[in-house]
Amino acid sequence: MVLNAALNKDENQRLLIEGARISLFMVILLVSIASYLFQPAFINWTLLAPFYALVTVALTMHLGILASLERLFRRPGWLFATFVIDALLISALILLSGLNQSLFLFLHLVNILLAGLVFRTEGGLIVALLTSVFFTAASLLGPDLKALSFILLLALNNIAFFLVAGLSGYLSDQLDTVGAELRRAGLSLRAARELNRLVIENIPSGLLTFDQGGQVLQANRAAQEILGQDNLAGRSVHEILKGFEPRGVGEIARVDFKFQPPQGESKLLGLLASGFESPELGAPVRLLLIDDLTKIRQLEWGLRQAEKMAAIGQLAAGIAHEIRNPLSGISGSVELLSQTSATEDDRKLMKIILREIDRLNGLITEFLDYSRPEQPPTDPVDLVVLLQETLGSVALGKNVRQDVECIPQWPAAAARILGRSEKLRQAFLNMFLNSYQAMENTLHPRLELVVAEDAEFVTVKIRDNGCGMSEATRKRIFEPFHTTKAKGTGLGLAVTHKILEGHGARIFVESEEGRGTEFTLVFPRWIEKIRA
Q: How many angstroms separate the CA atoms of 502 and 505, rounded?
């Protein structure tokens, strides 16, 4: 147990202790050289030859120890033996040098102190005991007069050995305790830093920190994914988020920011900016929390649209029933009047009335169809085949432009969903016709159709470069009777929305006046279940 204390010393402590031990013998060598330089007449080289031989042996031994320090500290028995050898060598040098014993007393004390630091109190006391034996023997064998003062001085020196051993053991215990606490604190600090790093790296929101000049200091993984850029550290936040101006330190601001990544479609980002003074950097540091709100805003818009459409549908159904009943009475009355004697002009007017009544009845029928709940889809439908057929029939129509460039992108395999083919065909037909009509005045009309699928969804994108629409129009695009065309009832896209919604599709619309419109439809993918 005494010797095992050496195993607890770290590399720096081992180097420091061994460096001090080498210094002991370097001090002896320097003192002897100084004595020769200042008192050359009193130096007998013949007598000092054994002295220098011992010093050389000691230095050689310790240089060897320094070369294999780690291995030696793993063998505490051998290490302890080197302290005993040092005590023996220092005592032998007392006999051979003839120098003042106070110097060697100091060297003995340092050796005991180092032994106590390595092997704690018990080890230090053992080395002190052996040192006392060696030192007493060397003193008694020396030429000094063995008077009472000599005996008292020898006793005091031996007492000093044991006092230093006890003190060094106490210091060793304290150093080990402090070292253990520091190691625990270091581990806790490292654990806290690692936890902090893991939290920052794994939060779903992006986090940027940047200095007063806008240079990014740190960016987590989510920030790189949201912004679509790697290696953000060191770059300017003004370059990354063009048009964004951070607030001052201490101010907190939340803004919605439209961002165009280097690749891909634009995103709506939620930016939360704040700042604080950093004592470590001695300068203000700003934080920017980034959330991708694109899908959230799309879902919010879809939910509001669904609620609005449901309310309009219920209202439309009620109004349609109320209008149809008096129309039936008017139609019957006019038919009876037409059978009685009347002038030719009266008959023409009655035909106009009946024709308009039929048109209103047709419109009401459409209204009722619109308000009637959709039947749940039950059949697997390959959207690729359906879209190819529908797009082909529209392109061959007589009332649409024939110079529209169609750019389809189909997946390698079939993209199946659960649906009703005729209803889906009607919905896509309405959307294609709207795109063609929006490109009537476009110089180089282009219609892009993209179908993509993943493990859960099939996504259809219909993009044209037509006239586009305003934000106000985009918000009302699926409302019944809302139309920007000179002709039309405004029910086409309303019915389309209802059909797509009945198929579980999420519908997103992006449009810009003069640039075009993009419809994004996300359907749940149908996966065939293999029966056992």
A: 7
Q: How big, in percent rounded to 5, are the helix, strand and coil portions of the chain? A: 60, 15, 25
Give yes or no for residue 63 having a pLDDT over 90: no
Give the model's pLDDT for residue 461. Answer: 94
CA distance 371 to 313: 5
Sign of the Cα torsion 195, 201, 202, 208 reads positive
Which domains are seen in the chain, by residue range? 3-184 (no CATH), 204-292 (3.30.450.20), 297-371 (1.10.287), 379-524 (3.30.565.10)
**Tell me: the pLDDT tens digits for 470-513?**
888 888 888 777 776 656 666 778 888 888 888 888 889 999 89
Burial of 192 from C-beta contacts in 10 A (0-12 / 13-18 / 19+)? exposed
Alpha-carbon radius of gyration of the chain: 48
Burial class (CB in 10 A: 0-12, 13-18, 19+), 529: exposed
Q: How far apart are CA 335 and CA 327, in angstroms?
A: 12
Summarised one tens digit per residue, pLDDT across range 178-223 is 777 777 777 677 776 777 777 777 788 888 888 877 888 888 888 8
29-33: long-range pairs with CB below 8 Å, 24+: 29/55, 29/59, 31/99, 31/103, 32/97, 32/99
Residue 338 tokens read as 């037409």
DSSP 3-state assignment of 269? strand
